[in-house]
Amino acid sequence: MPVEDRKKSRVTLLDVAQRAGVSRATASLVVRKSPLVGAQTRARVEEAMAALGYVYNMGAARLRAERSNAVGVVVPNLTNPFFAELLSGIEAVIDRAGMVVLLVNSGDTVERQDVLMRRLREHGVDGIILCAAAGTQAGIVQQLLDWDLPVVQTLRHISPELDYAGADYAAGMRQAVDHLADLGHTAISFAVHGPVHSAYDERIKGFGEAMRARGLKSDHVIRVPDQTAQIPQAAKALFEASRPTAIICFNDVIAVGLNAGLSDLGLKVGKDVSLVGFDDVTEADIIRPRLTSISTAPVTIGEDSARLLLDRIREPQLPPRWIIKPTQLHVRHSSAAAALSLGIHKAG
């Protein structure tokens, strides 16, 4: 083979991309005749191919293009209805792309998550949407790079190097505190449960900052059991500890449980004590009294997560993108003006 021919045979798609001033992913779309590339960009890439003598190896491309048309979704808890709504948003977008979702539950443990991530990789998924288990370290990013596997973070983030879709949790806490403070509440508790992760930290921080901004004590944070069935029993201990006139809940699961527990104590939610949930899942409008809650739009976050993953699969060289949606306060019947009739004292 002549020397010149050998040189041409070694021309890569990256060489073409650099000459045309585009990303390798864009050059790849051109050689695969994708309609996603504009006419001018396509012309530049084709000119670069001709100038460099690039030869498209269709056999190798076919092997590289083999896809499962499946994406993995890793969540930490399937009992929380929030994740069902998140999944509905993910599936709607993935289905329109002609793909399917493989859903797995990490149980919020890093060890189980690692096993499931490897299994999803073994099944050849084209990418993964990950709600990271508490304790996940940023070092997982290098593993994903080694696997060449597109991953999008959802709800919880572990690294700025990966795409992320979530909500402004701190702003949501400000909305909840401001709503209750405007109703005259000063003894406001924050009921939490579960392990610590980025969403937990942001809500805790948001609660503290919002309370201090209103001149209120910010240390009324009470942990309730992780098991949903045990949450109602925590209502009594909560009132023995701090006697709040209002309670903000880490999520709607806690709010539903405390709603039952408060009723068992003979307290009327929305009259004797105010209750505010977080996430605004469908059940918030079903329980009685209807639950005031901060909407984080889980369906929309799911849709955003899926779109980010599809973009990442199509163009692996895109810079990391974060989509953080604003929250919205939905006022219903579980929050009302501060009650004085039960002798529930105000915190100064």
From TrEMBL:
**What InterPro entries does the record point to?**
HTH_LacI (IPR000843), Lambda_DNA-bd_dom_sf (IPR010982), Peripla_BP/Lac1_sug-bd_dom (IPR001761), Peripla_BP_I (IPR028082)
Q: Name one GO molecular function term.
A: DNA binding
Q: By its UniProt entry, which Gene3D superfamilies does this protein fall under?
A: 3.40.50.2300, lambda repressor-like DNA-binding domains (1.10.260.40)
Which keywords label this protein? DNA-binding, Transcription, Transcription regulation
Q: Domain named HTH lacI-type: which ranges? A: 11-65
What the entry lists under PROSITE patterns is as follows: HTH_LACI_1, HTH_LACI_2
Quick check: keyword Cytoplasm in the entry?
A: no
Report the domain of life of the source organism.
Bacteria
* Transcription regulation found in the keyword field: yes
Q: What is this protein called?
A: LacI family DNA-binding transcriptional regulator
Per the UniProt record, the lineage of the source organism begins with:
Bacteria, Pseudomonadati, Pseudomonadota, Alphaproteobacteria, Hyphomicrobiales
